[in-house]
Every structure is written in C-alpha cells, then in structure tokens.
Amino acid sequence: MSRPVTLGALRESGYISRSVKDELRDNLISKLQKSETIFPGIIGFEETVLPDVERAILSRHNFLLLGLRGQAKTRIARLLTQLLDEYMPIIAGSELNDDPLDPLSFFGKNLVEEHGDDTPIEWVHRDRRYVEKLATPDVSIADLIGDVDPIKAATLKLPYSDQRVIHYGLIPRANRCIFVINELPDLQARIQVSLFNILQEGDIQIRGFKLRLPLDVQFVFTANPEDYTNRGSIITPLKDRIESQILTHYPLSIADAMLITSQEMKPAKAQEGIVIPELVSTLLEQISFVARESDLIDENSGVSARLSISGMENLISSAERRMLKNKEKKSTVRLSDFWSMIPAITGKVELVYEGEQEGPYAVALSLIGAAIKKEFMHTFPNPDKLRQKSQVDLFEDVRGWFNDGNVIELFHDESEKDYRKKISQVPGLTALAKKITSESSEIPVAEEMILYALTEFDVITKELIDSKLTFRDMLADMLGGLN
C-alpha cells in the first residue's frame, strides 16, 4: 500500500492527527479488545505491574517506573513502541517531527506556507519514535532542551533573537515520540526544574527565548529507590507533575524466575546441546531468592535477575569446558559446576558490613549452601529432627557408609562416566534421589545435592580444595585433622 507523499494527498487520504498519548491509548484499547499480548517477554508482572502501566496509558499519563535494578523497567519502556502506529507522517526535513496538518516549528510552518498542498511528506517508522537518555550528573539543559547555536547564527546571518538560531535538544526532537529518562534521580536538581513547564504547560525557555512549543511527548521515567539516598532524589515539584508512579518487583515465584532466565540467557551455538537438569535451574533461581533475604546482602540494593542469567551462562560454559577437556560429545551440568558461577554472584550483590567481614567468596558459598538446603527441605525432613524423635532415619544407609570410613572425591573436570560411578556407589543414595526426580539423567545431580545438603546439617562433612570436592564422615574428618 502506497502512502501519501504530499500534504494534499495526505488530506485526501482522510488522515486524522492524534497526540502520541491518544495514539498509545487507541492502540492499547484495540489490543485489549482483541486479547493480544501487549508486552511480550515480560514475565511475572501480568497481575501487578502491567495493569498499572495499561491504566496509566489509558489515562494518558506520563509515568515513573520505580524499582530496584534488574526489574525490566527499561524493557517495558522500550516495548511501548509496539503501541504506536507503524508509520507516522512528518513534514520532510523537519527536525521536530512536524505534523503536516499542524506544524510546530518555524521550518514546518514556513514550508507549508510556501508550498501548500505540495509540501513534501516523509513517513517515520515507530522504532524511530523512541528516544532514551540515561540521566548522568553531566547532562545539561542544552542536551535536553537546546541552546543558541552561534555557528548557525553566523552562517545564516541572523541575530540571536531569531528563533532559527536555536539548536534543539533531545526533548524537542522527540516531539510526537516516546521519551525515556533512565535513573531520573541522577539528574541534577536544576536540570529537573527545566522539565516542569514541558510536562505541564508545554513551553520551553532557551537563554532568554521563551518559546511556546506545545510539544507532544509521552514521557516515561525510571528510577531506583536506592538512588533517592545514595546519589540524588527526584525533586518534589517534578514528582507532582508525573501523574503515575508504578512500583516494579522481582519475580514472585521460582517458576517465573526460571522462565526469565531461559528467555534472557544467550548461550553460544555450540552450547545448545548441553543438558541442563531442571533441578539445576531450580537451584540457580533459589540462590537469587535466598540472596534477597540474606542478612549479609544490602536489601536496598537488590539482587538483579542478571545474577541468574549470568550464572546459568557460567554453568553451561563450565559443563562445556569439561566436555572439551575429556573429549566427550555431550555433557550435563552438575552441582559442582555451581562453584564456577561464584564470579556471577560476587559481582552482582552489595554486601553489608557483616558480609564484607565474611568476604565475597564466603558469602557466595553460603548462598549456594542455603539454596541447596532450602531445596532439600522441599522433599525431605530435617535429618537432625529424625534422630531426635527416634523416627525412621531415611539417611541411615548413607550415614553408615560414611561412618565406615568411606570417602567420595569429586573432581570438577571428571569425565561423565567416572562422575556417575563415584556418585552412585553410596548405598541408598539413588533411592533418595528418586524422591526428588524421576528423570534418569537428573539422578546423579540429585544424589550430589543430597550429599551437599547433608553437609549443611552436619551429617557428613565436605572439603573444597581447588577443583576437588570431598565428602566424608565428620568424625573421620576430625581424626584426620588431628593426624
């Protein structure tokens, strides 16, 4: 379908101008009536955040997405372009995206006056109608609003009092677009003040020029609550002009978190054959959930979903490296691979004083241990309570085998065959693992998890040295230490 290329043809086509907020509203209404997916790829917000965003759009509000890092705030903002018309007409050559039926700039008005119905028209795709700016302390009013351009004044031989010497900033150039400012509190207070009139009255002031520019912009802001105290704040008059403030959150369930990680991780093509047991995925997400509740980690800073995403990529790469070293054709992620994701943990958590005293590595190990213990308790009772209440001890065979002085040494780069042989030699361990999973490929991982969990309850003990993990009886370990 051909689109009009002149103002006259555009009028004849029956085109009707709409504000960007009305455009978003109308297209949202259409999608809601057709039960279409409005924010594809956003998981876990279906009953919380997204309805608030939709209500803000229906109300034609500028809105603020407020939440900790890694809560899909920018992703939501970028998906708003899907609610715009696919193409929008502008006056050809206009730097302010002038509406052909209602030009805004001196350039646009002059061109329409000169050419009338022959005024040339361009069509802008909706992907070009999204403007994003990261708020940093060095952002200036000239960047956002504009400034007088002396070069332009000299070239055109115009006085500084002429509107044509103005070089417009990002916001005027985002006319009829979505404009996003990320990390709003980082914007200096005097710069935030410059947004007042744009949000409310639509006029701007540049070095003495007071221009009545009724800009048509959908503003979206993002902020982290931590920024309010650590780096800056959103000044009260500006908050008052932002009509809706929407709170985001981390995934509320392990299942949602697993879907997000699966969607966002980017394994290499050669890694697609690596087997990832469901138990591994569950444990990985459990680490993030445990970290968000840990007393060693600053809850105000949050634990980003990127921890799980980066961690999963590390787990897969660890399994791939082992496969390549052993010249094997396939590989499965193991529990011992979790030590390879410690760099993904230490780089993504902010420690409180007690955590700093422990050290990042020790905190990461404690998070892994706590996650394994929590997942273990979903299937099994507390081993200590079984002994105290004289109940049937599910772990009697495992205890007895280690009490006899037997030891398991698992090397990180051990071949799949040797790993399975070692882990399955403990009597009764396979039967316990089958209570966790019925998948034969996941049994060794479940067996390894049970052994690790028993060390958390001091049934047996573990020792991690370099790339070797050793499980043995506690008493034997103490006697060995004495020797």
What do you see in this structure?
The protein folds into 3 domains: 7-138 and 175-247, Rossmann fold; 252-378, Orthogonal Bundle (Helicase, Ruva Protein, domain 3), CATH 1.10.8; 381-483. The protein has helices spanning 7-12, 20-33, 49-58, 73-79, 106-115, 141-144, 150-156, 170-173, 189-193, 196-200, 227-230, 236-241, 254-264, 278-293, 306-325, 342-346, 353-358, 360-376, 383-388, 396-403, 416-423, 429-433, 443-456, 474-482; strands at residues 63-66, 87-91, 121-125, 130-134, 146-148, 166-168, 177-182, 204-206, 209-211, 217-223, 244-247, 408-411, 460-465, 468-473. It is elongated, with a radius of gyration of 30 Å. A hairpin with a 2-residue loop joins strand 13 and strand 14 (468-473). The mean pLDDT is 89. It has 483 residues and is an alpha/beta fold. Helix 14 (278-293) packs across helix 15 (306-325). The strands form 5 sheets. Strands 4-7-10-1-11 form a 5-stranded parallel sheet, with helices on one face. It is 43% helix and 13% strand.
In short:
This protein is 43% helix and 13% strand. The chain is α/β, with parallel strands linked by helices.
* Backbone structural class: alpha/beta
Largest sheet: 5 strands, parallel
The CATH homologous superfamily of the largest domain is named: P-loop containing nucleotide triphosphate hydrolases
Instruction: Please give the order of strands in the largest beta sheet.
Output: 4-7-10-1-11
Mean pLDDT: 89
Offer a few descriptive terms.
single chain; alpha/beta; Rossmann fold; Helicase, Ruva Protein, domain 3; 3 domains; three-stranded antiparallel beta sheet
